Amino acid sequence: MHEYTSTARVWGLSCPGFPEEVSRVRRWTRDILRGSPLAEDAELIVSELSANAILHTASGQDCGTFHLALAVSPQAVALSVTDSGGTTTAPKVEHQDQDAEHGRGLGMVSALAHRVIVHTSQTGHTVTAELFTNPRPGAHPC
Fold it and tell me: Where are the bilayer-spanning segments (predicted)?
């Protein structure tokens, strides 16, 4: 596809690592995806990924930030949250039992998304959740 004829649109938002920013990114996502059947799932996913960045990385510490990218095409919605690092472990999908109090967020994201990708760099982690508009039968979550 030629870059000038692409129908994909991409938005970006940088936020300070304050807990109240989670509601801001939910609202921002909801506004961009208004009318999309994927909007509710995307809103839930972005709130979980943003909260994780604030709670578990340097994004939630003094002067920390996190960054959100939202790409929309006729075939998919991709949500990426990049944190500020500062942790020795990368985010990973864990399937906890129903009584667990922690560690269930990325499992929920994995259940909603068709694909979840974690990329680690020296400056932080990026978690991308992809939602497909017309997934192939039986091709649901990772």
Answer: none
